[in-house]
Amino acid sequence: MMLTELTSVSSGALPVGAFREHLRLGTGFADDGAEDPLLESLLRAAIAAVEGRTGKVLLTRSFLWTLTAWRDGDSQPLPVAPVSALNAVAIVDREENSEVISADLYFLTQDTHRPHLTSAGSCLPGIALGGRAEITFDAGFGATWDAVPEDLAQAVFLLAGHYYEHRSEASAGASAMPFGVSALLERWRTVRILGGAAT
């Protein structure tokens, strides 16, 4: 299985100004904004870490998910949440011939932690040996920062602030996720059972 981002978060969607206020950086100087590229990179790193820990996409992007077999015959958990739209499902054979599946044959089952691609009939379309399914979808809480849940937004600021304070250090302790951040993320983490399969 492979998950690929088809679109990225624009610089304008990142809360650089709010993060600057969070850090209590001075304003009114001739070099105002000089640190903005650093602040943006720290926010992107913190967002990636939070998304990786929780499986939740904070700002909406499009994704391509490729897999070689369905987990269940009639329903397939999607790798991240929340998913707002299934854009296309295609079956590709070993000769790279692609068939786009009619949207009438499946639908999105919403879930806070594990949304599903669900068959509208008895089963999802078959994937031949050596072939794959390609699913494109949109995921994220929204296109702007104010759509992100407050605890996740706070976790990003705390983690990015941690990165800022330790930006000159290379120790393992500097890169570890602080306890306060982990506590904020705990309720958003996906519970995994059955040998690693997500519930």
From TrEMBL:
InterPro entries: Phage_CHP, Phage_HK97_gp6-like. It comes from the Bacteria. This is Gene transfer agent protein.
